[in-house]
């Protein structure tokens, strides 16, 4: 299997898993999904500089070619931003869970979570 | 190099940590410092505007790296217009915040506000696509904080949606950047414009996919249909002052669409198999319909103002998405008006809600309150502006838009939808005005109240600015036309950034 195929399929699998999780109804899987999406994007950005093996990024006298250093810088920036944002979403999701009493993304309880008292309160 | 160009970035970037680290426990000092920062920003923006009005495009190379390797800031008429608008709006909104004491309801309001300004100014000035992404993130992160300021379950719930939607948007933005970088090998906008035009046919599909994703992200920020669902909930559940500042946030998306649409992906002549710009017109018209119909269906004044943002964005992009000089000029004249008029609606909703206490800004009959006549008059003027009736600038702007699209094949659609939505907007605002100010129910009047002049002054100034925009329509349209011509002929922009070596 070629390197391109491995990287491309890794990006694809991560994106698919991320999308699936991001569309879930509870905040925790959504946060995980967003994290996976950002991994997929980081890999993808990394690959936009073309995949090469064993080439120097900046300068080497004996070098026959160079790898593109810019996407690596972009990936670093993207990693920092997505790391900060993931931390923020986790705190926000926790806060929202504590204030609304449910971890559903729309802040409403699903029928499966309802206890008998809730059901009675609803009918009353 | 003209170092004035870096001031709109440097000032808030320095001010925010100062406010955060040293003035955290000194409310009075931090208010003064924040006001001072916004005032200086406005002066700097006006000076930059005067320089840009001469028609010269200026580039500022950070670290003096030769382009296209370093990051550049670029000032042309469009960026200068957005800078002035941002600074003016920020100053008035900050005044409202201080007058109503919103900054006392939680921590770190002022540092977040400065970071927000940093992100906005950066997005308007940068000439590099990845840098644009970074500034988008800066303004989004600050906006998450501002949006949640004051808290409460409803705000948190809307906040979770807002943050998640924008995180997915940022992911798409990065994918788009990756595709475009992979196909063209540059992220400098001026350089990319040349390389997209000269791209080999086998790269066209990649570029088109990147462009489509990029426009999807900008459409998400501008809240165009079908990516609009986050906006009404977010803007109506955050504090009114934050929502008023966010009126310019959705215009960042509009700005990015106009900038990349004219510079990198011009509608004709680059031979892409398909271009995202073709999809913009129907989406914009649908956005206008949804926005104004939403205004009619709203239960609260702030919700109505949020839908007004949507409607005005739709109207704006209906003309802007044609990307030719005449409609662009109309768009640029209507843009400051639509921003200020929707922001004024948000601020007035807050003023009215504070006087009606228990009734808040609900569109339901409540008790009479002191200062009702003056508040009603302000609401009337803001409503005339938001709906686009004469004699205010909204009317002039819509007239310019209608006049500019006459030669477009789809003109009956544009005319019909803009006129019909204006009528719906008038109906909606007339209904809320009559319910709020005429349909009085007996009830306990609010006892202790701050004087109306103190809390309503920023909103009144916004309305005054709108009136000035109508009175000075001649010079304003002249500037808008010049800016549109500059956008339609991007060679000056490219030469200012890359030098005339090509």
From TrEMBL, chain A:
Family matches, as Gene3D superfamilies: 1.10.287.3510
Main location: membrane
Topology class, membrane: Multi-pass membrane protein
N-terminal signal peptide: none
Keyword Cell membrane among record annotations: yes
Transmembrane intervals: 6-23, 30-53, 73-94
Domain of life of the native organism: Bacteria
Disordered, as annotated region: 102-124
Pfam families hit by this protein: Oxidored_q2
Keyword Membrane in annotation: yes
Annotated GO CC locations: plasma membrane
Compartmental location: Cell membrane
Keywords attached to this entry: Cell membrane, Membrane, Transmembrane, Transmembrane helix
Family, as annotated: Belongs to the CPA3 antiporters (TC 2.A.63) subunit C family.
UniProt name for this protein: Multisubunit potassium/proton antiporter, PhaC subunit
Organism: Rubellimicrobium thermophilum DSM 16684
UniProtKB/TrEMBL annotation, chain B:
GO biological process, one term: ATP synthesis coupled electron transport
Stored Pfam families: Proton_antipo_M (PF00361)
Domain NADH:quinone oxidoreductase/Mrp antiporter transmembrane, residue spans: 127-424
Protein location: Cell membrane; Membrane
Keywords, sorted A to Z: Cell membrane, Membrane, Transmembrane, Transmembrane helix
Domain of life per record: Bacteria
Regions that span the bilayer: 6-25, 32-50, 70-95, 130-148, 160-184, 204-227, 278-298, 305-326, 332-353, 374-393, 413-440, 452-473
One GO MF term attached to the UniProt entry: NADH dehydrogenase (ubiquinone) activity
Membrane topology: Multi-pass membrane protein
InterPro entries xref list: CPA3_Na-H_Antiporter_D, NADH_UbQ_OxRdtase, ND/Mrp_TM
Gene Ontology, cellular component aspect: plasma membrane
Protein's job: NDH-1 shuttles electrons from NADH, via FMN and iron-sulfur (Fe-S) centers, to quinones in the respiratory chain. The immediate electron acceptor for the enzyme in this species is believed to be ubiquinone. Couples the redox reaction to proton translocation (for every two electrons transferred, four hydrogen ions are translocated across the cytoplasmic membrane), and thus conserves the redox energy in a proton gradient.
Similarity field: Belongs to the CPA3 antiporters (TC 2.A.63) subunit D family.
Listed name of the protein: Multisubunit potassium/proton antiporter, PhaD subunit
């Amino acid at each position: 299997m070629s390197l391109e195929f491995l990287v491309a399929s890794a990006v694809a699998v991560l994106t698919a898993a991320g999308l699936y999780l991001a569309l879930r109804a509870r905040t925790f899987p959504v946060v995980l999904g967003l994290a996976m999406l950002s991994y997929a994007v980081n890999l993808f950005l990394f690959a936009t500089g073309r995949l090469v093996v064993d080439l120097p990024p900046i300068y080497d006298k004996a070098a026959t070619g160079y790898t593109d250093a810019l996407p690596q810088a972009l990936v670093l920036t993207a990693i920092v931003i997505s790391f900060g944002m993931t931390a923020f979403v986790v705190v926000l999701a926790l806060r929202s869970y504590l204030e609304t009493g449910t971890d559903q993304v729309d802040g409403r309880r699903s029928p499966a979570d309802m206890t008998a008292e809730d059901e009675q309160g609803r009918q009353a | 190099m003209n170092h004035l160009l870096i001031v709109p970035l440097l000032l808030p970037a320095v001010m925010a940590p100062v406010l955060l680290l040293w003035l955290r426990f000194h409310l009075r000092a931090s208010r003064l410092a924040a006001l001072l920062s916004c005032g200086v920003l406005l002066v700097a923006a006006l000076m930059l505007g005067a320089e840009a009005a001469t028609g010269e495009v200026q580039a500022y190379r950070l670290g003096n790296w030769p382009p296209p390797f370093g990051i550049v800031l670029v000032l042309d008429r469009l960026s200068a217009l957005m800078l002035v608008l941002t600074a003016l709006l920020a100053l008035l909104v900050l005044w409202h915040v201080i007058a109503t004491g919103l900054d006392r309801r939680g921590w770190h309001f002022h540092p977040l506000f400065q970071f927000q300004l940093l992100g906005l100014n950066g997005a308007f000035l940068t000439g590099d696509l990845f840098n644009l992404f970074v500034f988008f993130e800066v303004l989004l992160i600050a906006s998450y904080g501002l949006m949640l300021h004051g808290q409460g379950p409803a705000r948190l719930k809307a906040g979770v949606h807002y943050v998640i939607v924008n995180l997915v948007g940022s992911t798409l933005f990065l994918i788009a950047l990756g595709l475009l970088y992979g196909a063209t090998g540059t992220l400098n906008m001026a350089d990319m414009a040349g390389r997209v035009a000269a791209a080999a046919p086998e790269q066209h599909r990649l570029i088109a996919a990147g462009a489509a994703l990029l426009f999807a992200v900008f459409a998400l920020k501008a809240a165009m249909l079908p990516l609009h669902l986050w906006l009404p909930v977010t803007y109506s559940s955050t504090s009114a002052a934050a929502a008023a500042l966010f009126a310019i946030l959705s215009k960042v998306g509009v700005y990015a669409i106009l900038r990349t649409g004219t510079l990198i992906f011009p509608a004709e002549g680059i031979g892409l198999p398909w271009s995202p710009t073709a999809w913009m017109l129907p989406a914009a018209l649908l956005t206008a319909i949804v926005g104004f119909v939403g205004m009619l269906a709203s239960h609260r004044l702030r919700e109505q103002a949020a839908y007004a943002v949507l409607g005005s964005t739709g109207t704006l992009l209906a003309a802007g998405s044609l990307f030719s000089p005449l409609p662009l000029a109309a768009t640029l004249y209507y843009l400051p008006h639509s921003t200020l008029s929707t922001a004024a609606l948000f601020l007035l909703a807050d003023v009215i809600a504070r006087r009606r206490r228990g009734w808040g800004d609900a569109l339901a009959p409540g008790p009479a309150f002191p200062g009702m006549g003056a508040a009603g008059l302000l609401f009337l003027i803001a409503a005339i502006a938001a709906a686009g009736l004469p004699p205010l600038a909204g009317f002039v702007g819509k007239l310019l838009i209608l006049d500019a699209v006459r030669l477009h094949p789809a003109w009956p659609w544009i005319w019909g939808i803009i006129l019909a939505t204006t009528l719906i907007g008038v109906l909606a605002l007339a209904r809320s005005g009559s319910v709020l100010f005429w349909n009085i129910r007996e009830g306990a009047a609010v006892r202790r109240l701050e004087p109306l002049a103190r809390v309503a002054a920023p909103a009144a100034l916004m309305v005054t600015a709108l009136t000035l925009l109508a009175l000075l329509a001649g010079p304003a349209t002249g500037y808008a036309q010049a800016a549109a011509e500059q956008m339609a002929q991007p060679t000056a922009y490219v030469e200012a950034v890359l030098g005339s070596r090509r």
